[in-house]
Design brief:
Length: about 450
Amino acid sequence: MDMFFVEGGHPLHGSVRVDGSKNACLPIMAASLAINGEVVLQQVPQLRDIVTMRQLLQSIGATLDFRSDGAVQIDSRNVRSSVAPYELVRQMRAGVCVLGPLLTRFGHARVSLPGGCNIGHRPIDLHLRGLAALGADIRLEGGYIVAEARQLRGADVDLCGPHGPTVTGTCNVMMAAALAKGHTIIRSAAREPEVQDFAQFLNRAGARISGVGTSIVEIQGVEQLHNVCHTVIPDRIEAATLALAAAITRGNVMIHNAPTMDMTRVLNTLVEMGVTVDTTENTLHVRGSAPRFPRFLMAEPYPGLPTDCQAQFMALLSTVPGRSEITDRVFPERFMHAAELVRMGADIHIHGNTAMINGVTRLSAAPVMASDLRASAALVLAALAAEGRSEIRRVYHLDRGYHAFETKLNQLGAHIRRVNDECANGIPRPHSASRFAVAPTVDRPSIDGQTRFAAVDADPE
Ligand code: UD1
């Protein structure tokens, strides 16, 4: 397994470019299964999750051609199977996005329940509720979702869950409704830019979806979708992570291809903390005045502060004098990184879904362990600011969502070295959990919304 050595204390300077959005790309790739033809996607990020989705689509029968210019051609004409196997779906929760496309294409689908995660309660009841409202018969059989529908029909569906709307659930139901007979209304639809991009992709392919970006989406079903070429939006979470890296090192970084219009809450929060931020439509200039003002933050569904930036903000707020708080309303237990930040000298206490943070003057280097994708990013940020050399283990989590992250940061002046931890110093060191740690549990996704915990390590998102 790879790990990072990070020598802290070097302010980041220079310019960097953001890749395409992972969370937009994954459901779009899955939706190509519903198109009996060719799809060309541009600005596809080179990430491990994309490779996993590629393997999943190939296992179902699609042909994918990854070009050197970052475009991907997907041909689903020879898709004959409607089964998404456990071995692939378990690796990535977004694997469940093939459910809607396979059901519309074949009238039946057999999709493994998705993999677990380390960020709390993650059922899929809303996906299934939405598809059932469109007329699908759904049952669970041997760890698989089995869905059948001779003809999906438009319906009025409310996708509100206990923690707000569902992003991939909205995509699954939107996909099925696009090829259902009649008119569908999705209430409490997710409004995330990635969902908007998904709808735009489907509309380009001939779907009739309106109200996108609001919480009420209307879909007039069409008979079929046609060949389409689509450019995936840039990754607002990567852009935000880079902006926070500039801020935490008190650097001066120009971030290109940043979807600044989709980042209002993140950017306003940075400005409120005392960071200097200048934007154009697609560039973001973050300048290195030290953030001075602690904040009380709330991670919420879009247009709120993204839960996928919560960990990175926790790292930054750990270095801002005074008392801050972060509450996560989307994933109330997403605090695995807090314990590791404490190992680096941060002062953080978790109470329910809120982290109380007392800013310290300096973080100090420590050996730490990444528990999930955004937690890994937060640890890298903290290590960039810390005094001394940190060791970050299990950076495979990071590779799921950031392409060449350490290369990009090193080009900005960071000192990060990737090594294989078996070779780094013999037997990997045992790792002790801090008293602040949330138990290392992972939920078993369930259709009834009940959490089932098991102490295993697994990837989030
Ligand atoms: C997507 C993103 C992930 C992000 C999350 C929230 C992708 C591939 N992943 O995940 O990076 O952190 O949105 O912005 O796009 N819920 C239910 N029932 C369901 C589905 C969800 O109760 O059927 C709950 C979840 O437990 C969570 C909340 O709703 O508390 C939001 O989850 P959801 O939006 O579905 O997350 P994902 O789509 O899996």
